[in-house]
Amino acid sequence: MGQVVSQCTGPIFECRTGRESSGNHAANSRVPTSSSSSSSKRIQSMIENRSNFSSEAELNIEFSKIHWSELSTDSGTDDASTRLANREYFQVLKNHPEWGGFFKDINVVLGEKISEGGQAEIYDAKVEFADGRKFGYGYHVVKLMKGNNPLQAFQRQWPVGMLRNVSIDNSKGPLMYIKGGTMIDNRFGFVMVRQWGDLRKLIDLKMQLNNNRGPPFKIEFVMKVMNCIANDMTKLHNEYGIVHRDLKASNILLWSVGDGLPDENPHVKATVVDYECSVGVVGTGFWRAPEILQQLKDRVKNSDLEFTKMADIYSFGMICYELLTGCIPFEGYDFQAHDLFFGQERPNMLEDDASDRLYIIEIIKCCLEHEPLCRPTFSELLDISRLEPFQTMDFASKLELHRYGNKFYRVELQGHLKERNGQE
Where is this region: Disordered (predicted)? Predict the structure, then answer.
């Protein structure tokens, strides 16, 4: 049994120390470079082309297209002749016995467009709820779905865990900022509390202010954001049964009040968003785990793609990379170059003498493990961070200590590795 566990923990230590493995796991993996700072051709292009855009929002939308979500191309099976009109079907949704409370008649007046992605456009909005509460611009946004798909098609993209729980308990956690779904003319939209903006927007801004030199943040902010994301993802995974499928910096919103940027606010909070239509996306570029890219390479039908919680962990590792370097993962590579990952490559990371940054690099490497079961869970990330008596211990050692004696985990890993290696 111990030998089975060592197959997982061994490569983690090899990545941690930078030693090459005698096997294939680490031999082709990139290790941190000797550089102490980072720069981005994409950021440099933003700096040089800023004057060509009429507004900051227009600039951000154009340069965000590189990390827009890839949408499912499955057409569905419902016959157009049997579809209800959107307004009519919205009434059906409102009367649903289990999660009808999510759908509401909300009076919305759209303002300026402030963001855009592959699935939707984000607008500032004036909002009046059915109970008479009114809010002017600046308090709420509407995520207005793109395209002419009928509402019945959009419904297939919504995780039931969200629909069921927003109307029951939306006072805390990642669901608290969603106020419901409504119809605006003949288009469906999610009404949400407006926040400062997304994490990728802040990274881009900090890199521009730093003349395209990373790292963009102090370590305290990086650790705080990582902790917020891990907390939200633990809730999504363990309480609501939601696999995000498209975790990245642009899907993390930041709440901040007062003057100054969010990373300068000691009370800043980060929230995981854009899981509202998770079933309708197949991830984004190199934020996707190798097992997802393998399925895409094998031309698995979008609706049959198997996304697991461990795929979200891999994407979390890429967010940590964004936080630490300011760069997009594998910037400059073709997103279709899937073979890059089958050789178990990792993005270049900074090498830093500061122990706190080295610790984050260790976390990143563990999250980017090629073998899904070798990655930590979000619960483990939070638990390990609380191992105060072992603060001098590196992350991989903490993970091994945390899992030691977990019989269920070892049995599951043993069966998985035997199956993978064709053993009886």
Answer: 16-46
DSSP of 16-30, one letter per residue?
A: HHTPPPSSSTTTT--
| CA–CA separation, 324 and 139 (whole Å) | 31
Strand partners, 255: 269
Q: Tell me the pLDDT tens digit for each residue of 81-130.
A: 444 688 889 999 999 988 888 899 999 999 999 998 877 899 999 999 99
Among 193, 210, 226, the domain-final residue is 193
Name the most confidently modeled range: 31-45, 47-61, 385-399: 47-61
Q: What is the pLDDT of residues 157-188, one digit of tens each?
A: 888 888 888 766 556 678 888 999 999 988 89
**CA contacts within 13 A on the Cβ side of 232:** 27
CATH number for 407? 1.10.510.10
The structure's pTM equals: 0.79
Evaluate whether 128 touches 134 at the Cβ level (below 8 Å): yes
Q: Which one-letter amino acid corresponds to residue 59? A: L
Which are the contacts of 304, defined by CB distance < 8 A and separation ≥ 6? none
Residues contacting 146, CB < 8 A, separation 6+: 118, 119, 120, 121
Domain boundary among 193, 209, 225: 193
CA distances from 35 to 213, 220, 252, 350, 356 (A): 12, 21, 28, 6, 17
Contact yes or no for 252/319 (Cβ under 8 A): yes
Spatial distance between the Cα atoms of 392 and 398, rounded to a whole number of angstroms: 10
Residue 119: the pLDDT is 79
User: Which residue range(s) make up the domain with 384?
Assistant: 2-46+197-421
Both 185 and 204 in one domain: the answer is no
Place of tokens 């638990």: 383
Same domain? For 229 and 362 the reply is yes
Contact 305, 292 (CB under 8 A): yes
Query: What domain count does the chain have?
Result: 2
**Residue 114 structure tokens:** 């402030």
Q: Are residues 220 and 364 in the same domain?
A: yes
> C-alpha 93: how far from its chain's center?
28
Report how far residue 253's alpha carbon sits from residue 233's, in angstroms, rounded to the nearest whole number. 14
- The answer, yes or no, to whether residue 424 has pLDDT greater than 80, is no
> Which strand (E) or helix (H) includes residue 124?
strand 120-128
Residue 209 and residue 185 share a domain: no
Is there a single domain that holds both residue 254 and residue 182? no
